C-alpha cells in the first residue's frame, strides 16, 4: 500500500515525465501492483536545423534582499581570526564585495582581502563564502565532509574548501541552540570567470558558437573531475601505450553529485546535495535491502528540476519489480556522466534548456559507428548542429542514455575526449580568444556597460561604451579583436597518439 510520501514522490515525477497525476484511488490501485513492461522504441523525425539563438536581452539588475545585504555586511569568524594564517585574518581585513548567488540550501558571496598589502602571511585575496540559511536542519555537515575528502585529492578540477568547515558557536553568533555542533558556512575557492551558465550567456551575446576544441577541453575537465569523485584520482596517460590508467585511492568512497548543471560548474563544486555511493558501500548485498533501499529512495528528489537523472525519474519505481530495474536507484559514476551530458548538451546548442525528460527516444542512426544501446534524451544533436563533429555530438548523446550501464565508462570517456580534441585541433587550430571567457566589466555612470577591450598604450580597460551587437566591445576594439583572431599563429598539426589505439 502506498503511503503519503510515495504519493507525493510518484506524482511529482509523473508530472515531471509529462504524465497525469494519480488520484488517491489510482495510486492505491496501481502503485507497484504489476511488473514493468518495456515500451516500444520511439524514433523521432529528423528535426529542421534551428536558427542560431538570438542574443538575450540585457538582464535588469535585481535588488538584493535585506537578508543578502546583511550577509555581505556580516563578519566571518574564520576571516576575522588573527591567528588564522591561511587568510592573514584580522578585524576588518576582509570585506563582503559581491553577492554571487543563492540555492536551496544557502547563499554565496565574494569576500575580498583589504588588510595590510605587505602582510607576508596573506595567501588569498578573494574567497567565496557559502552560508546556510534557515534553521539548523539545513546545516552543511555533509557538504563539509565531502569537501574534506575531496581536498585530499588536490585536483584542479574540483572547487575546494580552503579550510575545514568549523562548527558554529550558537551563543556567540546569536543562533538557535540547535546549531550547536553544526557547520553553517564554508570558505571556498573563488572562480573569477564565473560558471558555465554565465559562459553560455557571453557567447550568446557574441552571436557565435564555441570552438569545438573549447568544448572538448571543458569535456575533459569534467571527466577528470568525476574521476576524482569516483576513485580519488584523475585518470593518467602513462607512456608508451597512452591508454588511460585508473588508480583507486585507499579507503575511498565514491561520491555522486546529484546536482551537476551549468550554474554549479566553474570547477565541479556545490556538493550540498552530494552523497556517498550506497550501492558501492553495500556492494549489492541482499541482506542490507532493508537499509539501502529506504536510503536510495530518499535520493530521488536530490537535485534541481530539469536536471534529475533517469535513475530518479524513471517510471519503473512505480512497478512491483523496481528492485530488479536497470535504472531505478542505480546511482553510480554513470549518474555523474549524465550530468556531464546535460552540461555539454547546453554548450553545443548554446542554450539554457536541459534535455527534455518527457521525450526519450531510440536514435535511428548509429552513435559513433555503433548501433544505439537504447533510449536517450534531448534533441537529436547530429541533426541540430552543423558546427560540431559527429564525434562530439554522438558522445554527448551517449552520456544521456537512459540506462546507466549504457553510458560510457570513465576510461572510455577519457580516451575518446582526448582523441576528439586532437582531431578537432587538426581541423581548426585557432582557439577561442581568452578575452571572450572573461566577465564583462562593471557598467558606466550612464548605465551603459564598459567596453570589454583594453587600451594598448596604457594597458587599462577601455572606457567607451560596449555595444550589444558587438559582443560587448566598442567599434574600435571590435575591429582590433577581429584582426587579432586573424593574426593568431597556427600551431603545427600534432600526431594523435590515440589513433592507432582505436
Automatic annotation (TrEMBL):
The keyword Nucleotide-binding applies. Residues 94-422 form the Protein kinase domain. GO terms for cellular component: cytoplasm; nucleus. Keywords: ATP-binding, Kinase, Nucleotide-binding, Transferase. PROSITE patterns: PROTEIN_KINASE_DOM. GO terms for biological process: chromosome segregation. Its EC number is 2.7.11.1. Residues 473-502 are annotated as: Disordered. One of its GO terms (molecular function) is ATP binding. Gene3D superfamilies: Transferase(Phosphotransferase) domain 1. Residues 482-495 have a biased composition (Low complexity). This is non-specific serine/threonine protein kinase. It comes from Hyaloscypha bicolor E.
Amino acid at each position: 500500500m502506498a503511503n503519503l510520501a510515495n504519493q507525493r514522490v510518484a506524482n511529482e515525477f509523473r508530472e515531471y515525465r509529462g504524465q497525469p497525476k494519480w488520484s488517491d484511488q489510482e495510486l492505491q490501485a496501481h502503485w507497484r501492483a504489476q511488473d514493468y513492461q518495456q515500451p516500444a522504441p520511439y524514433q523521432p523525425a529528423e528535426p529542421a536545423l534551428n536558427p542560431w539563438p538570438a542574443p538575450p536581452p540585457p538582464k535588469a539588475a535585481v535588488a538584493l534582499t535585506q537578508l543578502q545585504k546583511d550577509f555581505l555586511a556580516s563578519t566571518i569568524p574564520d576571516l576575522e581570526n588573527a591567528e588564522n594564517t591561511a587568510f592573514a585574518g584580522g578585524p576588518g581585513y576582509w570585506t563582503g564585495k559581491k553577492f554571487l548567488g543563492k540555492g536551496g540550501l544557502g547563499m554565496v558571496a565574494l569576500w575580498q582581502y583589504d588588510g595590510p598589502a605587505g602582510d607576508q602571511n596573506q595567501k588569498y585575496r578573494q574567497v567565496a563564502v557559502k552560508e546556510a540559511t534557515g534553521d539548523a536542519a539545513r546545516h552543511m555537515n555533509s557538504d563539509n565532509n565531502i569537501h574534506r575528502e575531496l581536498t585530499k585529492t588536490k585536483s584542479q578540477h574540483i572547487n575546494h574548501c580552503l579550510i575545514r568547515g568549523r562548527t558554529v558557536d550558537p551563543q556567540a553568533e546569536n543562533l538557535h541552540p540547535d546549531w550547536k555542533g553544526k557547520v553553517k558556512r564554508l570558505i571556498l575557492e573563488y572562480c573569477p570567470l564565473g560558471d558555465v551558465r554565465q559562459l553560455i550567456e557571453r557567447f550568446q551575446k557574441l552571436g557565435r558558437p564555441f570552438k569545438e576544441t573549447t568544448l572538448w577541453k571543458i569535456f575533459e575537465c569534467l571527466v577528470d573531475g568525476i574521476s576524482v569523485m569516483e576513485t580519488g584520482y584523475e585518470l593518467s596517460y602513462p607512456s608508451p601505450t597512452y591508454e588511460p590508467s585508473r588508480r583507486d585511492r585507499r579507503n575511498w568512497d565514491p561520491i555522486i553529485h546529484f546536482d551537476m548543471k551549468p550554474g554549479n560548474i566553474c570547477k565541479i563544486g556545490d556538493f550540498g546535495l552530494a552523497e556517498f555511493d550506497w550501492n558501492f558501500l553495500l556492494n549489492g548485498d541482499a541482506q542490507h535491502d532493508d537499509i539501502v533501499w529506504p536510503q536510495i529512495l530518499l535520493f530521488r528528489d536530490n537535485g534541481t528540476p530539469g536536471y534529475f537523472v533517469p535513475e530518479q525519474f524513471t517510471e519503473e519505481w512505480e512497478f512491483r519489480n523496481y528492485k530488479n530495474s536497470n535504472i531505478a536507484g542505480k546511482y553510480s559514476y554513470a549518474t555523474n556522466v549524465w550530468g556531464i551530458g546535460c552540461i555539454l548538451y547546453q554548450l553545443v546548442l548554446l542554450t539554457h534548456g536541459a534535455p527534455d525528460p518527457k521525450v526519450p527516444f531510440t536514435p535511428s542512426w548509429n552513435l559513433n559507428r555503433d548501433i544505439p544501446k537504447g533510449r536517450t534524451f534531448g534533441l537529436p544533436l547530429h541533426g541540430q548542429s552543423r558546427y560540431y563533429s559527429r564525434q562530439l555530438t554522438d558522445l554527448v548523446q551517449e552520456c544521456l542514455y537512459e540506462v546507466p550501464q549504457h553510458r560510457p565508462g570513465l576510461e572510455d570517456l577519457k580516451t575518446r575526449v582526448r582523441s576528439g580534441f586532437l582531431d578537432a585541433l587538426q581541423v581548426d587550430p585557432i582557439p577561442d580568444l581568452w578575452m571572450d571567457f572573461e566577465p564583462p566589466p562593471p557598467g558606466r555612470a550612464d548605465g551603459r556597460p564598459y567596453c570589454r577591450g583594453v587600451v594598448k598604450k596604457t594597458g587599462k580597460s577601455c572606457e567607451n561604451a560596449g555595444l550589444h551587437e558587438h559582443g560587448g566591445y566598442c567599434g574600435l576594439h571590435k575591429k582590433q579583436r577581429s584582426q587579432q583572431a586573424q593574426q593568431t599563429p597556427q600551431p603545427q598539426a600534432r600526431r594523435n597518439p590515440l589513433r592507432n589505439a582505436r
